[in-house]
Structure formats: structure tokens, C-alpha cells
Amino acid sequence: MAPAGTATGGSSAVHDDAEAMELGHDNLIRRRHAAGASDDRIVVGSAAAAAGKELAPPSSSVEQAFADQPVPSWREQLTVRAFVVGAVLSVVFNVILMKIDLTTGINPSLNVCASLLSYFLLRTWTRAIGCTGLLKQPFTRQENTMIQTCVVSAYGITFTGGFSSYLYGMSGAIAKKTESNDPQDIKDPHLGWMIGFMFLVSFVGLFALVPLRKVMIVDYKLTYPSGAATAYLLNGFHAPQGTERAKKQVRTLGKYFSLSFLWAFFQWFYTAGKHCGFGSFPTLGLEAYKNRFFFDFSPTYIGIGMICPYIVNVSLLLGGIISWGIMWPLIKTKKGSWYPETLPDSSLHGLQGYRVFITIAVILGDGLYNILKVFCRTIEAFISRYRNRNTNTLPVSNDGTPATTSETESFDDKCRLELFMKDQIPKTVALGGYVILAAITIGCLPLIIPQLKWYHILAAYIVAPALAFCNAYGCGLTNWSFASAYGKLAIFIFSAWAGASHSGVIVGLAACGVMMSIVGTAADLMQDFKTGYLTLSSPRSMFISQVIGTAMGCVIAPCVFWLFYKSFDVGASGGAYPAPYTYSTVTWRSWASMD
Fold first, then answer.
1. Could you tell me which NCBIfam families the record lists for this protein (predicted)?
2. Is the whole model's pTM more than 0.90, yes or no?
3. Which residues contact 526 (CB under 8 A, 6 or more apart)?
């Protein structure tokens, strides 16, 4: 018998490397072995290099800076301290976002902020424990990604939960402002049923697009700007000390963060009220300003434009010119002919109706086209792969043919792709989870909202995956989630289905919540998968972190809203929390009341 750690360990390592070389000459992830026992951690290296062949990545490679650091296994990436920090930050961000939502109606993306705060908190934690000599596991970028994923999924419930939109639209306070003031169409907020509602509708979306994660992230190479920016930030912070990349990124981050903050403060200082200040400056003239053509000096949109591909920016500009510059002014001239002259522009029976329906039609048409294209190309690729079983190909490529891997693929892409495909989430888990959770929701949600029947929920869950794909695809291009647009579509369909005389208002608003939760959660999950892909984080651990964060959000978000709801006169004009979306929810409720 060979001594432990000598012949046995060596032969095992050679055997594993030989297997890796058989699987592919460019296999970039190999197992580490120590003292005859296998370690689940992996390092970025090369089987070819282990066999004596050098692989020289370019100096600009991100992963080359981490080449000597082991990548933790998916279990090691899920730590207790990560979820403790995640829970604390989830409460903080839910309070911040709820306050912003109820005061300004804005739902900003705080992915980068969550990453920064989680980095500094856990870095402080590990340094303090390290001083005592009790630190057992170092703080890695993968663990940081888990915290960020947990926090983002938790505070995302603030938006998909509809606390200032569809859920608040069910209340009697909003019903008094509309014609649909029937008691059967009113359901006032209460902490118990809100938490139950969130738990029933918030998890299904996590399983909707898991089987398509490779198509979205690897094959289509969608940008997902927020997820990509977060990943680059984390890679910069966790790069080994002394690397020029980390120093440069930190300096650049601090410089532009300071400039953006100071400019926002300067704008706020010179803003006296609505339609005042630099954000409402008639840059192109008063007539253009009336048609929403002006520059609002927002660093947020400048940053998004810098991240998005130029073709996306050109498309957005072209869409803005065609709609606000040509279509809406022309339709407005038809007032009195196409719609009653007495209606305001914000009425759904007037100009706003044309805006909403045309926009939703364009989004749905493009999204459904892309899902059909992906489906057809995937079937074609699988057929081609079956016919050419001995070739090394990827399932989908941009031109519809199998994309053969080549030597031109970058070192970083090889590392990321191999790890991204390593810890698979079985399709049976994704499909089975979707079906089981949908069945639970179909059976239990009518107990909370009796007006919503089981067949309404079943119909929503049948069409939801297609709409979730459309939203995730658009979010990957533009960084904008159109979950509210799909929610509005659900209001029309399900309200008309139920009818105003059969609680169509509540049915439409509740169906809106079901649809928004699925569509919005699926897009957020893909954003996080993009972050994980760029930080070599395990998709399996990220999915688990997303589930845990969603569970936190289902409790934290309703509790935070309940605190505001009971402590302040939410929605009161001139109050501390006017909830600007109150006016939107009035419109939403009016839409739902149309038979």
C-alpha cells in the first residue's frame, strides 16, 4: 500500500489530469488534491499546463489575476456570515427603497450599492476575526456575489410586490378615488395576507428561465449592464493586493462616484419643485419640451448608455423620435375625431391609450419573435449536433449554426464557460419546481383572494414563461425591466375575462401581481447569473442564494410597508409620503374596471 499523500495522491492527480485532457485540450479547471484527499475547491489553470504545456493568457486577462486562488465549491460559497450580512442589508435596502418609492415613485437599481456595502461589511468582519487568529475561510468574490444576490432578490420584492401599484390599488383608499367602489372590489392591506401572497407568487419566477440561462448568458451574450457592472466592481475589489487593475478600478470608481454624487446634489439644490431645475430644463426649446424632448442631465442614464451596446442606444433614440416626435403629436391632432376632445392626455380612453397599447404591442411582438427564433434555432442546433456527434460544438450560435469552439476564444471566456456549465441546475428541478409551485399557488391563492379563481392563475402560469423570456431578453439589452408593462397587459386580459360585475377589478389587479412577480423575478435572476458568470460563481449556489433572499424579502418588504402604512397617512396629498404612484394606481384600477 502506498503511503498517504505520495503514490496514491500523485496517481490520482495524474489520472484526473489525463481525464481532463481527454475531455478537451483546453480544459481550464482542474481538481486540487492534497494529502491523498480530494478538495472540492478548484483553481483556474490548465490540464495542458499540468502536463508540461504552457498556456499564456494575455496580461489584460481578469482571471489571470486570480489564477493562484482556488475557486470555492458551491457549498463553500454559501456561508452563514454571508446570509447574516445579507439579512441586515436586506432590511436596510428595503427601508430605503420603500421610502423612495412612497415619496418619489422611483425604483432605482442598487446592485452596485449592495455589492459595495456587502464588501466593506464582510471585509471588516473577516479582518476583525483574522486579528484573533480564528478566521477559517477567507472572504472571496464568490461569497461577495452570494451576498449581493441575496440582497437584490430581497429588495426586489419592494417593486414586484406592488406596494405602491397593484397591491395598494386594491385598497379602499384608492377605490374612493375611482368609480369602482364596490365592496367586492376592495381588499385593504393587512400584514398577514400580504406575506402569504408574496410567498405564493414570488418563487415561481425563479424556476421559469433556469433551463435557458446558457442561451441568454453564453450563446446570446446579452449584456445585462447592471449585472456586468457589479461583476467588474467585485473583480476589481477582490483582485490580489498590489495588482494595478484593482488600484485603477478603485480610483476610477471613487472619482466618478464623487462626480455623480456632487452633480446630483447640485441639481437638487437648484430644484424648487415639480418641473423645475436642471432635470426639467427645456434644452431644445419650449415646444420640444412639451413633447418630452429635453435633456434631464441624469448621470444614471448616461452611465446606462455607456454600458449598453451602441445599437441599443440608437434603437432607443430612434424609438423616442418616432413616438414622442412624430406619432404622439400626430395622434394628438386627431383629438375630437379618434377620441373625445374632453378627455385629458393621461386618460386611457384618449391619447394615453394609444401610447400604452402601441408600446406593449411592439414589446410583445419583438419578444415573442425572439423566443420563437431561439426555439427554432435550438431545435435545429440539437439536430445538427446529433448528426455531428464527434464534433465539439455549442448548442446555439448567432447565425443559427453550431458554433465550433476555436483557439480564438479568450482565456477568461474559457474559464467562465467551464465553471458556468459545471454546477448544473437539473432541468427536472427547474421544470418540476415550476409545476409544483404553480400547483400550490393555484390551490392556495384563491383562499387569500377568493375573487381570483384557479383557472385564472393556471392561465397566467401557462403564458408566464414566454413573457418572462421576453422581459429577460429586453432587460439583457437595455437594463430595463418591463414587468409593469406585462402587468398592465394582465390587468386588461383578466379583468375582461372576469367582467366588472364579477369582481373584475380585484381579479385584474391580483393577476397583475402574479404576472409581475414571475416576469420581474426571472429578469432579476438573469442579471444575477450574469454577475456570477463574470465572477466564477457557481450557478447552483447563486440560485440557492436567490431563493433565500426571496424568502427574506417576502417577510421584510410587507413588514416595512406595514410600518409606513400604519405610521403615516400614505397616499395623502401634501403628506410626508404622498406615494406618487397613487395616481398611477387610480389609473390601474380604472383600467381594471373597464368591461
1. OPT_sfam
2. no
3. 209, 213, 216, 217, 222, 224, 227, 472, 475, 476
